[in-house]
Amino acid sequence: MATPYTPKSILITGAAGFIASHVAIRIAKKYPDYKIVVLDKLDYCSNLKNLLPVSSSPNFKFVKGDIASADLVNFILVTENIDTIMHFAAQTHVDNSFGNSFEFTKNNIYGTHVLLEACRNTGQIKRFIHVSTDEVYGETDEDAVVGNHEASQLLPTNPYAATKAGAEMLVMAYGRSYGLPVITTRGNNVYGPNQFPEKLIPKFILLAMKGEPLPIHGDGSNVRSYLYCEDVAEAFEVILHRGEVGHVYNIGTKKERTVMDVAKDICKIFNLEAEKAIKFVDNRPFNDQRYFLDDEKLKGLGWSERTYWEEGLKKTVEWYVANSDYWGDVSGALLPHPKAGMMPGHEGPQDTNGMLAQFITQNQAKTLAAPPASEHGAKTVENGAQVYTNGTVH
């Protein structure tokens, strides 16, 4: 096992989103000596409210900006003395990738490349944790009893998975060519509070709350594995401190359930008759039947799944019932086949100014000053990049 690693200043990309917000909150609260800097452009599936639990923490800073801005990324790495990157920022919804694939290439491949090049330029990064997905492995045989292990071939079947696999190749190349200390993770599906309702579980919960049909692609036999968000946040905490440079870690569970099983479990919680509540709709252009991971390597670092499905689903339902208006109007996301253009607020949450007012304690805002020219290429910062730290805009 690698020597335990202790970061000092961590850049977490995409942490106003679902999984990364849980990771950022966990680390910021548990390790007050670590500086946590979040970079997020506040896309439609991000929400500043996800970070409210740590918004006033002295070790936390939020920067609104795009990972595709090389000058901004270089500037942050240098001025914040970043030694660790946890790269979550990505376009992740498979349905959207079929109709908006160029955005996935731009965000997932080009954005990752910008980060890697900034790391090479500055030469100060001691850990680069790249967050990928189980979908890069492609479809697992229905009768397979052993899951994909970290050395399995990558065979993505949809544009989203292909861009994540492409990003992985860049990460691996920078590790080998430039000695960048990279670690890659590939995870099963994650669910829990705060997730934007384009994904299956929150979508079904909100539809069940409205008494509307639960749309199932195809015949509902597709198999998925689900991990509760807090268990996944703990996995990233373990990988951050104990993961070995150059290695890949699956974050998974061997407990599988079909999409039909998920729908029936949600119907049961809401006392709905599944036969009446479930509606079958056209399948995706290609819908992988199964993703199955071998999770033994991560268990070897001391991590294990803690939250049983019944408990995690109950917590998730309770959260959405108590926070039904959290995302505002999400009617476009609740359609059987949502498209990117139907999503609210491509520039961020609908009430961005209101969100910022909640997020900071002083109702002031000014643009982050452009950095001076430097040998690292950080000459200008994109217009509109803003920093929010300890309750104040800088």
**What's the number of extended β-strand segments?**
14
Please trace the helix and strand order, writing H or E for each element.
EHEEHEHHEHEEHEEHEEHHEHHHEE
Strand content: 15-25%
| Computed structural class | alpha/beta
| Shape descriptor | globular
Q: Tell me the radius of gyration.
A: 20 Å
> Which regions are unreliable across 5 or more consecutive residues at pLDDT < 50?
345-355, 360-384, 390-394
Helix fraction, binned, reads: 25-40%
Strand order, sheet with most strands: 10-6-5-4-1-2-3-13-14
Residue-averaged pLDDT: 85
Characterize the main sheet.
Answer: 9 strands, mixed
The rounded distance between the terminal residues' Cα atoms is 41 Å
- SS summary, helix count: 12
Describe the structure.
- This protein is of the alpha/beta class.
- Helix content is 35%, strand content 16%.
- The chain has 12 helices and 14 strands.
- The chain has a 9-stranded mixed β-sheet, sandwiched between helices.
- Helix 1 links the parallel strand 1 and strand 2 (35-40).
- The protein is globular, with a radius of gyration of 20 Å.
- The termini are far apart.
Q: Topology of this protein?
A:
Layout: E1 9-13, H1 18-30, E2 35-40, E3 60-64, H2 70-79, E4 84-87, H3 94-99, H4 101-122, E5 127-133, H5 159-178, E6 182-187, E7 189-191, H6 200-210, E8 214-217, E9 223-228, H7 229-242, E10 248-251, E11 256-258, H8 259-269, H9 274-277, E12 278-281, H10 296-299, H11 309-322, H12 352-359, E13 386-389, E14 392-393
Parallel strand pairs: 1-2, 1-4, 2-3, 4-5, 5-6, 6-10, 7-9, 8-12
Antiparallel strand pairs: 3-13, 9-11, 13-14
